[in-house]
Request: fold
Amino acid sequence: MATLKLEIVTPEAKVYSEDVDMVTLPGVEGEMGIFPMHVPLITQLAAGEVGVRKGGQDFFLAVGEGFVEITGDRVAILTDMAIKAENIDESKAEEARKRAESRLNEKLDEAEVASVNASLAHSLAQLKVKRRGR
Reply:
């Protein structure tokens, strides 16, 4: 069976690099399912959940915004955040969500609004992944 090489890189580290059967990811136009031999594509990644199927098992990562390059045998994700479900601290993510939502009620300039919105997107992505299946 054909596989894809999935590589997920953040500014801090290479978070993931393995051969997988399928990847689902949050594109800016909606969720995309990527199988081996997918048409080549470069697209923007939205904050959300990346799903990975490998050997009949599914697992998930919370990701921030970024870019994705897809070739027939490779998916390369460059993002500002990528955290495996088992590494997410739900209480910290919930606290971050609450802080970001309360900050949006303050008088902020454009740069601060963008930063707070990014923080909110990161915490919501983590909570979605951590709470999956409940």
User: Anything to note?
Assistant: Residues 4-85 form a domain with the ATP Synthase; domain 1 fold (CATH 2.60.15.10). Residues 21 and 55 are 7 Å apart (CA to CA). Residues 110-130 form the longest helix (21 residues).
